[in-house]
Amino acid sequence: MFKIFVALAALVAVAAAVDDYYAYPSYKFEYGVKDPHTGDHKSQWEHRDGDVVKGAYTLHEADGTERVVEYSSDKHNGFQAHVKRVGHAHHSEVYGHQGGYGGSYDHGYGHSYSKLHKYN
Questions:
Q1: Distance between CA atoms of 78 and 65, rounded to whole angstroms?
Q2: How many Cα atoms occupy the beta-carbon half-sphere of 117 within 13 Å?
Q3: What pTM was computed for the model?
């Protein structure tokens, strides 16, 4: 009798797991980070109701702008994202010695390989 009870309990557990597999997909979430020490500022939210997903995220770029991405997905339009950049880019000043062509390679300076001499 105990074996039948265990087998019946296992069968009920499997049936319950199958029912969860076909559950209607629906959720909402959001989070945000604002760390003044590292400068990490970002947030995201998302909402799903069946086959329709909508959401957005924002993050602060290194140049001082904010990237805003709004997205949606459904079975008719597929995945679509709209990206915006808010604000004006600010680039930090470069301090130190002038490198230039033939100079030293200091931090903050880019050098082009086009100025190298070609040897045949």
A1: 29
A2: 4
A3: 0.57
